[in-house]
Design a protein that fits this description.
Radius of gyration: 53 Å
Structural class: mainly alpha
Number of helices: 16
Strand content: under 5%
Distance between the termini: 86 Å
Number of strands: 5
Shape: elongated
Oligomer: single chain
Length: about 550
């Protein structure tokens, strides 16, 4: 009984092609049923084994003729051996003969085992038509070295088949091979193929290094193939940049700012030299007269408030920047009644300074309106805006406006102080309270109406405004008469005459002493010093 086998198709041989072989190809012929062979004695099997090995090795290359000869199979071609070449082997190669069915091979083995023709009922036409066995052509494969010839070389020859001992007398019992004989024949064929084609162990054959390569090399390994350079250590970063990058940014940015400032000064000086602008500066000199009853001079409480405000602002800015960059706090603080509400010791110090700063600001505003000093920093006329433009042109042109801070500020100073006291300070307080520990956590409606994200986005720019204001304020204090201005703010000394106290050093020494106190507080703001103070108001722990 035979069964029909389906054609097995694989991957396409070209990109986008059909599976190979095509659907029109005929399926392989089914293997005929083999009837079980009758048992034979062991001596006959031993005598037939060498002959089976010879037939297994040489029979595929010998054509079989007669009524049961099998047709030749179509040549199976594979991928090309060179880029853009034709499939291998070429179309001119001879096709591979199809394997003979098992009964035909059995009859050939039976005939080869006998020295005389088989006669009688067991004789078959196939046995009489067997062609003499000849040595098949050597099968060569891919080269073993790049650019070499196919392996094995053309000079190699196929291994000789083992000698066949004297055949045993033919008889009816040896006309048909047994299953044991076929197994012995398969093992002999496997051994012969191993001897003729040694297995590859994966190691390249030894090559004489004195002989030049048969091809021109195009790729060289280089030094990195044997040794890798030691990677350089990552430079230490201060924020997003390294020290060298910060230095380069400061140098390049500073040079750019100086150049831009120089061009701006040249342009404004040309503008001020024109007649219309000169008339504008005469009409609006940069300040306007204060209302009647405005106080003259700076009282001692205002000088003290000024120093204490600077002291708190410097420490608040320092702790605020540290809060933004702190990853692992050195110590924690928690209230006595709620030890589970822990916060960083630096955040506690920052918020404590905020409380002192707010208290100092409230006292300052109350005294400001109680003594009438508010008229010095709050605009009281619309003339403040043209005078603001006039004062700005004079500052940029490096022709400082004539003013006496003991009596009146110019419009640019007045609006700067007003913005700092009545706009920037309240914004810092409102946004700071939203992010502080005193803000109620369990208030959904309040938190939704005032999200903490808004406070964070606004609090930091306000801090930057204070930094810029302090830098410009100090620069102008020293550029427009250092001794006179320091006497006004630190010694509370001055007069209507702007040249008075211009050579008095009292204010300068008080200013130097205040800077020393601020520097000492900056250095002392460490956990070792802050922890004992924080324990007076709560619990300090390392975790």
């Amino acid at each position: 009984m035979t069964t029909t086998r389906r054609l097995r198709r694989g991957l396409p041989r070209v990109v986008g092609g059909d599976p190979w072989p095509p659907a029109s190809a005929a399926p392989p012929a089914p293997a005929p049923d083999v009837a079980p062979a009758p048992p034979a004695d062991a001596d006959a099997d031993a005598d037939v084994a060498p002959v089976l090995a010879e037939v297994a090795v040489t029979a595929p290359s010998a054509p079989v003729t007669g009524p049961r000869a099998t047709p030749e199979r179509p040549l199976r071609r594979g991928l090309p051996r060179v880029p853009d070449g034709e499939p291998w082997p070429p179309a001119s190669a001879a096709p591979t003969p199809a394997k003979a069915p098992a009964p035909a091979i059995a009859s050939q083995v039976a005939v080869a085992a006998s020295s005389e023709p088989v006669t009688g009922p067991q004789a078959t036409p196939e046995a009489e038509s067997i062609a003499p066995v000849t040595d098949a052509g050597l099968r060569r494969g891919l080269p073993r070295v790049p650019g070499g010839e196919p392996w094995p070389p053309a000079s190699a020859s196929r291994a000789a088949a083992p000698e066949t001992p004297a055949p045993a007398p033919a008889g009816p019992e040896t006309a048909e091979p047994t299953a044991a004989a076929l197994e012995v024949a398969g093992e002999a064929a496997s051994d012969a193929a191993t001897r003729s084609h040694p297995p590859l162990d994966g190691a390249a054959p030894a090559r004489d290094l004195s002989v030049p390569l048969p091809f021109t090399p195009t790729v060289w390994a280089g030094a990195s193939a044997t040794a890798r350079p030691t990677p350089r250590p990552e430079p230490r970063r201060f924020g997003p940049f390294t020290a060298l990058q910060w230095l380069a940014a400061v140098v390049i940015g500073g040079a750019g700012l100086i150049y831009a400032a120089g061009m701006l000064v040249v342009a404004v000086r040309w503008l001020v030299s024109t007649a219309p602008v000169q008339e504008f500066l005469v009409r609006y000199p940069g300040e306007y007269h204060l209302p009647e009853g405005a106080p003259v001079g700076i009282p001692a409480w205002l000088a003290w408030q000024h120093f204490f405000n600077v002291f708190l602002m410097v420490l608040i800015i320092r702790t605020g920047l540290r809060v933004r960059t702190e990853k692992r706090p050195d110590a924690f603080w928690s209230p006595r009644g709620a030890k589970k509400r822990k916060t960083s010791l630096n955040i506690w110090f920052h918020q404590s300074l905020d409380v002192l700063w707010v208290v100092n600001g409230i006292v300052f505003v109350v005294l400001l309106f109680a003594t009438g000093q508010w008229m010095r920093i709050v605009p009281t006329s619309w003339e403040v805006f043209p005078n603001l433009l006039s004062a700005g042109l004079q500052y940029v042109s490096l022709d400082w406006p004539t003013e006496n801070g003991w009596v009146n500020y110019n419009s640019l100073q007045q609006l700067a102080y007003f913005s700092t006291v009545f706009i920037a300070a309240p914004l810092a307080i409102i946004t700071g309270i939203r992010m502080s520990m005193w803000w109620p956590k369990n208030a959904p409606r309040l938190n939704k109406a005032y999200p903490v994200e808004w406070a964070r986005k606004l609090h930091f720019p306000v801090m930057l405004y204070f930094v810029v204001f302090i830098i410009i304020h100090v620069a102008l204090v020293f550029a427009t008469g250092a001794l006179r201005n320091l006497n006004h703010m630190y010694a509370a000394q001055g007069s209507v005459d702007p040249d008075a106290y211009a050579t008095n050093w009292t204010g300068f020494w008080l200013f130097t002493l205040s800077m020393a106190v601020i520097a000492a507080a900056w250095v002392a703001a460490r956990p070792m010093v802050l922890a004992p103070i924080a324990r007076l108001f709560g619990t300090v722990s390392s975790r």
